[in-house]
């Protein structure tokens, strides 16, 4: 009987050991933020290991100027918070992006604003901290005036840092059809048509081109009231004339040809009554041809300050000019390597006052 009892308990113990439960699996949860500067991921509950079936809650916490975008790795979508059932080792990445802000551009007047990347992106959004270069582009006949809103001043181009929503206004103003050059003398009218008229400081001016200029000179009008910004050819304009009018305020910036302009012209006493400082106010920087321009004339005015670097032909420019002996030694003449033919034959112009051919003195 005792042996039976012992056998029974031994069998029961053996059976009981076979019924012992297997241990519950545990898993790791690895979290990361992309990029690291974008923020972090908090987890609840926190543990180095989780049992199978544990429910974990993940919450993204973006840094300033960043926003959470989505989950990657073993996480998907963009739900926040994200609930995760731990049934395996998991690697979950929280993706952050820089917050975007709108750069709102407003235009006053006629023109556009070009950005460094795109043109006219009114309402376009930029990531925080983006530096945008703005360049105003006025429509023809207009000029950029100033910035307002989140920019000020009149610099062009100008940069703006988009660290929040920005509102910028670009102001353009219309260029008057008739106006004075900054030198205060030269009449400018580049945006006119021949025959257009305009008033500057109470004086009416008429815009003329090549043809209308010649006609108005024959008509005997007041030369000083002609605006010549459209004129490109003044060759032989005063050929064998008595110069009596005032024209120091003429705009010659678009003139290409001045060949024989004052050939055999006589500058009368009436001319001397005008200041007519064409040496100071004329800007012949685009003229290519000055052949015999003052030949046989009585002209003798200082023109040493002229920009003649575009001139290609000065043959006979002062030949037989009975009075001229002004200092033009500082003329920039890179296109004319040697003294032109008959440049100053039979004139009092001495060698010290002549240009240094082929050079452009400081």
TrEMBL record:
<dbReference type="Pfam" id="PF18998">
    <property type="entry name" value="Flg_new_2"/>
</dbReference>
<feature type="domain" description="Bacterial repeat">
    <location>
        <begin position="108"/>
        <end position="175"/>
    </location>
</feature>
<feature type="compositionally biased region" description="Polar residues">
    <location>
        <begin position="343"/>
        <end position="354"/>
    </location>
</feature>
<dbReference type="InterPro" id="IPR005046">
    <property type="entry name" value="DUF285"/>
</dbReference>
<feature type="domain" description="Bacterial repeat">
    <location>
        <begin position="30"/>
        <end position="96"/>
    </location>
</feature>
<dbReference type="Pfam" id="PF03382">
    <property type="entry name" value="DUF285"/>
</dbReference>
<protein>
    <submittedName>
        <fullName>Listeria/Bacterioides repeat-containing protein</fullName>
    </submittedName>
</protein>
<feature type="region of interest" description="Disordered">
    <location>
        <begin position="343"/>
        <end position="362"/>
    </location>
</feature>
<dbReference type="InterPro" id="IPR044060">
    <property type="entry name" value="Bacterial_rp_domain"/>
</dbReference>
